[in-house]
Amino acid sequence: MSSAQPPLKIAILSESPADEAAIAVLAEVALGRQCQRVQPSLRARGWPSVAQVLPAIIRHLHFNTDAAGLVVVVDSDNSVVHLPSHDAPDYFHPYCRMCQLRAVFRQTTKKLPPANGRERVLRGVGVAVPAIEAWYLCGRDEQVTEAAWTAGLEIDRPPYTRPQLKYRVYGTDRPSLYLETQLALEAVRRHQGDLRRLENDFPGFATLAKDLRSWGQ
Amino acid sequence: MIASVAFRNFKALRSTSLALAPFNLVIGPNGSGKTSLIQAILQLRALAKLPLREAVADNERQPEGAEILFRFNPPFDGLEASLTCVSEAVCDLLQVTPLPSGEGVDDWAGLRTRLLSVRSYCFDHEAVASTPALKDGAELASDGCNLAAVLAARRQAFPEAFARFTAELFRLLPEYDELSLIERADQCVQLGLRLADGAELIPAGDLAQGTLCSLAILALAFDPAPPAIVCIEEIDRGIHPRLLRDIRDLLYRLSYPAEAGETRAPVQVIATTHSPYLLDLFREHPEEVVVTEKHGRAARFTRLGDHPDLPGLLAGASLGDLWFSGVLGGVPEDK
Ligand SMILES: [Zn+2]
Question: For A111-126, what is each residue's pLDDT tens digit?
């Protein structure tokens, strides 16, 4: 990680402080530089509140802060998984959370005039399939991949449930926020040197990493 | 501890029953039975203090009087406790009868000891900020008015538990780094928190309402010898929505001590709330949420986990928003 550059100012919108801590680590690796998070931190009450509050957050960051970009990560739960075919020009899947969040970014930023020395707040969107705990298990549990989940959904037999993933990560059905944060950080730090495995197993993370790498261009 | 409660003619609870879990979050409009549930449990405790009376014939009871039946979890599932009315409109008769199966048939004494430790709290920030007499620190009062004395006593008698309590306190409220309990010349204890950056000591009277209520809940969660059952009304009172996750974690520490690394017995928790933000945190455990509903003058209980379409509903909205919308029930009737 380059230490010559000043930290990049970013904002993160996710469902809990534990997720946010883990996403911050992954974002720094993908960006290849240190980040500084905008204060106060942002929070949403899960889906669909993330999509509902996102236009206001983009607008706030654009006019009232010097944040370079906004990272948004949500769980897919049981919704439609984003596929490469959704990336076709002008395509938009109404039930895919990745497509929905990208559309909100597009529609909100195009209406805003330049502010704080930049055209717009840069976009980083990731969708954890079916929950961010699946990312935490990457490299620890071969059975847990986005492809395994999608294949399971197709035959109406998901390979695991959200509570099962959470139990595998936290060892309890009711982790405290403290435990959740510690274990989330421990999990993502295993990928600190190399994100390739996570990107390979979880295209919903790979799209986020791709977004973030484009920020430097 | 308590497995179930069945009500007949008890205030608005005309005919309803409720199975209780280790942890129970009760939501619903005012007057729908949240407080009545807690009052029934407290009445069981009050009558358990007295010697058990001989069996009373049915015709000696008030014919339309209230009746409340309690069943218990092992090791007391062989007993049933009934509260009925003999001389007054309030339940004034406790009878304990053995059931055909279950443990503890002969252990009313053991069950009674557990029931006598039931406690109910409704923390009031002004009370929590008061300066109690040092000698009044044996156990936390229902409004939290002796918190400073309880903590001073705990510091003396259970230094390890006290240290874990303060460590958690500074993790939850990182703006502070010292808990001050000053024993004054008049034998009263004054509580304060020292700011981490400025080293300024903030006396309890100047602390925020939510900080004081959080302190009381924290003290309860780290009680080295907690009650068997804890009822807490309006658990979210004064607390910022972003801190409710910590409050939920503290309550879980009581109900599921092993998962929090505690070695003591589980405490059954019955907490009430009006906060959709707190309810959001039970998405993974809807079976822990009790909805109270009032139709006309009659109220009843349902478990959110029994809602047939909950997973489908949750795909489109948060639990708190669903509750507010009315689709889960537990909302006031239109005027
Ligand atoms: Zn898509």
Answer: 899 999 999 999 999 9
Whole-prediction pTM value? 0.93
Q: Considering only CB atoms, which residues of chain B are within 8 Å of chain A?
A: 171, 242, 245-246, 249, 252-253, 256, 259-260, 277, 280, 283-285, 315-318, 320-321
List the one residue out of A26, A55, A62, A46 whose CA is nearest residue A135.
Answer: A26
- Cα B231 to Cα B235: distance, rounded to the nearest angstrom: 10
DSSP-assigned letters across all residues of A8-41: EEEEEE-SSHHHHHHHHHHHHHHHTB-EEE-SSP
Q: Quote the CA–CA distance of A183 and A189 in Å, as a whole number.
A: 10
Contacts of A162 in chain B (CB under 8 A): 284
- B315–A77 CB contact, under 8 Å: yes
ipTM metric: 0.91
pLDDT in tens, B141-186: 999 999 999 999 999 999 999 999 999 999 999 999 999 999 999 9
- Do A57 and A123 form a contact (C-beta atoms < 8 A)? no
Per-residue pLDDT of A160-212, as tens digits, reads: 999 999 999 999 999 999 999 999 999 999 987 789 999 999 999 999 999 99
At residue A3 the predicted structure's pLDDT band, cuts being 50, 70 and 90, is low
Give the distance (Å) from ligand 1 centre to CA of residue A183: 29
Using DSSP, state whether A135 is helix, strand or coil. helix
Q: Compare all CA atoms of chain A with the CA of B279 and give the residue at the minimum distance.
A: A45
- CA-to-CA distance for B155 and B139, rounded, in angstroms? 13
The three-state secondary structure class of A124 is: strand
C-beta atoms of B249 and A177 within 8 A: yes
**pLDDT tens string B66-85:** 999 999 999 999 999 999 98
Nearest to B245 among A46, A166, A177 (CB): A177
Q: Determine the residue type at A186.
A: E
Task: Select from B242, B249, B317 the Cβ nearest to the Cβ of A48.
Answer: B317
Calculate how far, in angstroms, residue A15's C-alpha sits from the geometric centre of ligand 1.
Answer: 20
User: Are B317 and A45 inside 8 Å of each other by CB?
Assistant: no
pLDDT, position A1: 54
To test the contact with chain A by mutation, choose from B23, B169, B259, B319 the residue with the greatest count of A C-beta atoms within 10 A, namely: B259
Q: Within 13 Å and on the Cβ side, how many CA atoms surround B318?
A: 21
CA distance to partner chain A, nearest, from residue B246 (Å): 7
Give pLDDT tens digits for A135-166.
Answer: 999 999 999 999 999 999 999 999 999 999 99
Mean pLDDT of chain A: 94
Alpha helices (runs of H) in B125-267, residue ranges in sequence order: 125-128, 147-157, 159-172, 209-221, 244-255
> Nearest-CA distance from B242 to chain A in Å?
9
- C-beta of residue B19 within 8 angstroms of C-beta of residue B38: no
**Is B180 buried (19+), middle (13-18) or exposed (0-12) by CB count in 10 A?**
middle
Nearest to A163 among B245, B256, B284 (CB): B284
